[in-house]
Structures are given as structure tokens and as C-alpha cells.
Specification:
- The complex is a heterodimer of chains A (340) and B (325).
- Chain A is 28% helix and 21% strand.
- In chain A, strands 6-7-8-3-9-10-12-11 form an eight-stranded mixed beta sheet, sandwiched between helices. In chain A, strands 2-1-4-5 form a four-stranded antiparallel beta sheet, covered by helices on one side.
- By secondary structure, chain A is of the alpha/beta class.
- Chain B is built from twelve helices and twelve strands.
- Chain B has an eight-stranded mixed beta sheet.
- In chain B, helix 5 crosses helix 7.
- Classes of the chains: A alpha/beta (340), B alpha/beta (325).
- At the A-B interface, helix 6 and helix 7 of A face helix 7, helix 8, helix 9, helix 10 and helix 11 of B.
Chain lengths: 340, 325
């Protein structure tokens, strides 16, 4: 069993006077020690909700979350169980996730005193060690978060998560508020932590290019469902789900060629009223009759991959959708120059 | 060909608690008709200030020097009234976040027709017809219905399309787009980039594109200018600059991007340190403390931006291409 396992997790948000939204409609994934799992998808696909459910910040409506062999209980009024502290989270914006009025060192030391991991006399040394691990000088402990840039603050947030000696860290868009060079530095740091400390990372991001660089496994989410999972390199060379293919085609390349990325027509539909059949079919250039009525299950394919698409037979060969003949085109989709 | 817009020696000082701080320190650039002119750089490099100055949108107390000639007048020295006739009519702007740049409590129709009536003096019914045309142009489904809707009823990509429609309402000659796709998903971003490209081709619109994303630049910009700490460090045709970056900073930015053909487990190459704040810019070349090619003179002499073969201007005495060779 993996360190962190999400099985058929569903999360529903209730809205006053309107039908509830199923933000996550049945998603499964797992994270092993030292493994980096990337979770990608567009705004509104439910990836952040799934991340919050994974650490118990929201309660799933159905399905279960297992951490270190125990079922994770969602956060309630009582203190979080001590063993769950080994599951940590890093948030998107280090400007709001760090306390502006407390010294960096004190914030990092909190976990040590609360969990009784390090005796008071050794805490200062441990804080210095953690800061060094994330590439900051030990003197940073005496300073305040506002004295640091965005990238450095994100390092502090990571050091604080590491203080609890986690086996898994869930990171929600940890790089998206950073500049390019800071992004590269933090991305390298995450990769090194997973490799050296054997921490499992669940990395939520909308930036596929970065996920491709850091993650060992990638799960692609669309409108509350995981539609494809695969080892990173395989996913990139042969995307099997039409949505994955579209996501990769939409990434601009900084090569000076003037190549314009492909637009995916339409936008993520309202999760309160998902389309019938395959949720992706209204935007899919390969959709055929069956896609409009039946929702495809996520089925296993060769070499540790899975995909939810009627184009593929269970256990079949790896083929990108563009390698299939285009059966029918959804009316009008191809006519737009730049999509809607 | 005469440039549509020519900016010379633009210097901007902004007031802070500790006195005036130089944010832009001598920036020159020219925008040609029908061209997408890209300004790239990290946050704090002054890329946004360099265009806000053109439209008189700097905060109270800012000190602006230099000139920006557009259609026979100097934008930096226009009176308030004259500027009002340029802003929105001749030169329009689209911002990063359409959720804050659109008025949340005004219908899309009212926001679209407002300056048609003000700048062009159209009658209400003509303005309405023109508004529908504009929404069609940016591919909003059911444009007539959209006129009565509020911004929150649209998705992020749609809102940015509406913001672009509003900017285009008076058929400006220059559209300034400040990080127009940064808040959007890649799939939606691709649509906006294609829209800008189509507008440029169909109507000869000039676009000043500001973004930190060199991938976006590669897709749409004809000309690329890279800024660091308030100065231009390199500029040239996008193909030249991105294929053979010659300033160590440009080269560093490109190396920091995840590359499709990179070997597995190769770390991203990052530039050490972080950009200086305007209050604490290093002497000499502002980039020298982070530069692996720096020589002694870099710490004292500010390198001039000079022609460097092909289409390029370069502000670096140590051309990394030559060092590497």
C-alpha cells in the first residue's frame, strides 16, 4: 500500500438555494515515499479541492483517504491526530501562509514543540539545519517573513512543513506566484527533497511544463475526474486522453519559432451541471456517439498507465488520440480560428 | 518607415516614504505599425511603469523625463485634456486581471458603449450595434445577450476577451497588453494569443505586449525587449533574441525554463539570487552580482545599449556567446 492513497474520493460543496456542486466526482491516486506525483488541470477542475481533501481540510462525501495505512479523519473541532502530522501541506501564496508578525525561526520551531519532536535545547540547531536544507542562511531564523522575496518565503514555508518530519507533503500551486528564476530554484529544491529525504510529494499545478520537470507520475484532472495517469515521460511522449493532448499542445514554446499554441475550444463547464456522458465530449475533437451518453471509466493500460476514454480498449497499446482517425467532429469546433 | 511610437530616454522616479526612487533609468524603444512589441522582465524590472508613463497613469508626484512621440506630439508632456483624447481612443490598455479591471456592477454593454459615446460621439443605438460587432469580433457567443450581463457571469477567458473588446472599441492604433494571459489557463491563453495575432493581421493594430513569459513572447511578439532593474539589457527580433540570447540575464531566463528535450533529472538552471529592489540597485551593471561572466568593470561602469550585429542591441561588454566559444 502506498503512503498516501485516495480511493474514489468525492467532494461536494453545498450552495444555498442551488443544487450542490460535486467539485471532485470520484478521483483515485496514490503517492509513494520519495515519489513526486503531479496533479494538473484547468481552473475549476477540482484539483485544489482534491488536495485539501487529501490532507483532511475538507471532508469527502464518499470514498476514503488512507495515510500510512490508516484512514485519515477529516479535520474537526478536536486536535489533529499526532500521526496525521506526518502529512503536511504547503499553500500557494507564502505572503498569506506565513505569519507576518512572528520570526521565521519561531514559526519553523512550532511543529517541533507541539509534536515534541526535538528537545527545546536542540531546536535552534534543528531550525538552522532545516533552513540550510531549503537553501537559506541560519541567520534567517531571527528575521521576519517580509524581509524575504516570494521565492525565499516559499522556501520558509517548505522548511516549516519539513519541521514536522513529514512522510508526505501536499503542495497546492507552490510555484505559481513566483518569478521564473525563483520558480526554477524552488522546483529544483522540491526534486532534491523528494530524492534525499524520501518525502512523497503531491504537487498540484496548472503549469504542465514545470510538472513535467519535477514529477515522476502525473494525474490529469478534468471537471472533477481523473482522466489519465501515467509516468511523466510516457505521458508527454504519448498522451492518451484527448484532453491531455490538448493541454500539451497549448503550451507556448520559448524557441523563437513564432509557433502559435493550439487553443482548446470552449471552457471548463460549470461543475454544477456537468455534460452527460464523457464530461469532455463537448470540447473533444474526437467525440463520437457513445461519448455523448456513456461516461468512460478510468481503466488500466500497459506500463502503469490508466485513461478514461472510449478511444482506448482496456490494457491496450499506447496511442495518442491524433493517431486515431477523427471519427466525427463536434459541429463548428474546427471552424474557429482561435477558439472561444 | 517612420515609427508609430518612439520613446527616447524615458526616466521615471516614483515617490516613496524615503524620497524619490529611480524606477526606470533611460529606456528607448520604437513601436512600428502592425507590430507586436514585447517587453519582458521579472517583477520590479520596470516593464509596466514604462507603459503606464505613456498614458499618464503614474501615481501623483512621479517625475518623468524623456520623450514619447506619437502622431506629432509628445505623450509625456500632454495636458490632461489632450491625454484624455489619446487614452482609450488612440492607445488603449488591457490589464492582467479582468476581474479587477472590469467594473463589477456595470453591465458589459454599458462598459463597452461608454467610450464610444464619449470619444466618438455615437448615438446610443449606434453604440449598441458597434458593441455587438466588437463582441462578435472577440468571439463572445450571443453578443446581444452578453450586453445585459455582468462581468461575474463570464469565465476568466471570456472576461479577458470582453476587456479586449472594450479596449478595441474606438479602433485604437496601439493596444497595450500587460500580462493579459498570466491569470489564465494555458488552453484559454492560447485562444487569447490567437485572437491578438488575428487582430494584428486583420486591422494592422500595433500591440505592446508585457509579460514575464518568454513562451508567450515567442508565440506573438515580432520584437523582444528584455528589461532588468529599470534598464533595457537586450532587444532585437524575437527569433534572434530567443534563439541566440546574448545578454547573460536573457540567457539565464531561458535556461530557467523547463525544456522539452532536457535530460531526465537535469536540474533547471536558475540565476542565483533575486532581482534587486529599486531602492537598492547595485552600481555599474545592475545584473553584475548575479552574473557568472562579470568582470571588474561591470561593478563600476553602466554598460551602454549598443548595436551588436543582426537586429540586436545589447548592454553587456562581455558577450557570453564569445566567452562560451
Amino acid at each position: 500500500m502506498s503512503l498516501l492513497e485516495l480511493r474514489e474520493v468525492e467532494v461536494e460543496y453545498r450552495r444555498s438555494g442551488r443544487s450542490p456542486v460535486r467539485a471532485v466526482a470520484g478521483a483515485s491516486l496514490s503517492v509513494d515515499a520519495g515519489e513526486v506525483v503531479g496533479l494538473v488541470g484547468e481552473t475549476g477542475c477540482g484539483k485544489s479541492t482534491l488536495a485539501r481533501a487529501a490532507v483532511g481540510l475538507v471532508a469527502p462525501k464518499a470514498g476514503s483517504i488512507w495515510f500510512e495505512g490508516q484512514q485519515l479523519r477529516p479535520l474537526g473541532r478536536r486536535a489533529r491526530s499526532r500521526s496525521d502530522a506526518r502529512l503536511q501541506m504547503v499553500f500557494q501564496n507564502p505572503f498569506s501562509s506565513l505569519n507576518p508578525r512572528r520570526r521565521v525561526g519561531d514559526q519553523i520551531a512550532d511543529a517541533m514543540s507541539i509534536l515534541g519532536l526535538v528537545p527545546a535545547s536542540a531546536r535552534r540547531a534543528r531550525v538552522a539545519e532545516l533552513l540550510e536544507q531549503v537553501g537559506l542562511p541560519p541567520a534567517a531564523a531571527q528575521r521576519f517573513p517580509h524581509q524575504y522575496s516570494g521565492g525565499q518565503r516559499q522556501r520558509i514555508a517548505i522548511a516549516r512543513a519539513l519541521a514536522a518530519q513529514p512522510s508526505v507533503i501536499v503542495l497546492d500551486e507552490p510555484l505559481s506566484s513566483l518569478d521564473a528564476s525563483a520558480q526554477a530554484q524552488v522546483a529544483n529544491l522540491l526534486k532534491r527533497l523528494a530524492r534525499d529525504l524520501k518525502v512523497g510529494l503531491l504537487l498540484i499545478s496548472h503549469d504542465l511544463a514545470l510538472v513535467r520537470h519535477i514529477a515522476d507520475m502525473v494525474a490529469v484532472m478534468y471537471l472533477g475526474l481523473v482522466v489519465e495517469t501515467a509516468p511523466t515521460r510516457a505521458l508527454w511522449s504519448v498522451p492518451m486522453h484527448p484532453y491531455t493532448e490538448a493541454l500539451i499542445e497549448a503550451i507556448p514554446r520559448a524557441d523563437g519559432s513564432g509557433w502559435l499554441p493550439e487553443a482548446l475550444p470552449g471552457e471548463v463547464p460549470d461543475p454544477g451541471h456537468p455534460p452527460a456522458g464523457c464530461r469532455f465530449h463537448p470540447r473533444c475533437p474526437y467525440a463520437f456517439e457513445r461519448c455523448r451518453t456513456e461516461s468512460p471509466p478510468l481503466v488500466g493500460m500497459k506500463k502503469n498507465r490508466s485513461v478514461a476514454c472510449w478511444l482506448h480498449e482496456p490494457g491496450g497499446e499506447h496511442r495518442a488520440p491524433s493517431q486515431f482517425a477523427r471519427v466525427t467532429r463536434t459541429s463548428g469546433v474546427g471552424d474557429h480560428v482561435d477558439g472561444i | 518607415m517612420k515609427s508609430l511610437l518612439s520613446v527616447q530616454g524615458l526616466r521615471v522616479q516614483l515617490p516613496t516614504a524615503s524620497g524619490l526612487v529611480t524606477v526606470l533609468d533611460g529606456v528607448d524603444y520604437e513601436v512600428e505599425p502592425g507590430q507586436v512589441f514585447g517587453i519582458a522582465g521579472e517583477s520590479g524590472s520596470g516593464k509596466t511603469i514604462s507603459v503606464l508613463a505613456l498614458l499618464g497613469l503614474l501615481p501623483e508626484g512621479a517625475v518623468v523625463e524623456g520623450s514619447a512621440s506619437y502622431a506629432g506630439s509628445d505623450l509625456l508632456h500632454l495636458g490632461r485634456r489632450a491625454m484624455r483624447d489619446v487614452r482609450g481612443k488612440e492607445i488603449a490598455m488591457v490589464f492582467q486581471d479582468p476581474l479587477t479591471s472590469l467594473h463589477p456592477m456595470m453591465t458589459v454593454g454599458r462598459q463597452l458603449t461608454e467610450h464610444l459615446v464619449y470619444h466618438l460621439g455615437l448615438k446610443a443605438s449606434d453604440a449598441r450595434d458597434r458593441a455587438i460587432e466588437l463582441l462578435e469580433e472577440v468571439r463572445i457567443p450571443d453578443p446581444a445577450g452578453a450586453l445585459h450581463a455582468f462581468p461575474h457571469q463570464f469565465s476568466g477567458g471570456m472576461r479577458q476577451r470582453i476587456a479586449i473588446a472594450i479596449a478595441l472599441a474606438c479602433r485604437p492604433r496601439i493596444l497595450i497588453a500587460d500580462e493579459p494571459t498570466t491569470a489564465l489557463d494555458v488552453t484559454v491563453q492560447a485562444g487569447i494569443l490567437r485572437l491578438l495575432d488575428r487582430l494584428r493581421q486583420q486591422s494592422g493594430l500595433s500591440v505592446i505586449m508585457i509579460t514575464h513569459d518568454l513562451g508567450v513572447m515567442s508565440s506573438v511578439a515580432d520584437w523582444l525587449t528584455v528589461m532588468y532593474a529599470g534598464r533595457i539589457v537586450e532587444s532585437g527580433s524575437t527569433a534572434d533574441v530567443l534563439r541566440r540570447p546574448r545578454h547573460p540575464y536573457t540567457a539565464g531566463l531561458l535556461a530557467a525554463l523547463p525544456h522539452p528535450e532536457a535530460a531526465e533529472d537535469a536540474p533547471l538552471l536558475s540565476i542565483p539570487g533575486s532581482p534587486p529592489s529599486p531602492q537598492a540597485r547595485p552600481a555599474g551593471c545592475a545584473f553584475h552580482p548575479r552574473c557568472q561572466y562579470a568582470v571588474a568593470s561591470c561593478a563600476t561602469d553602466v554598460p551602454e545599449l549598443i548595436g551588436a550585429g543582426d537586429s540586436r542591441r545589447l548592454a553587456c561588454p562581455v558577450d557570453p556567446l564569445l566567452v562560451r566559444a
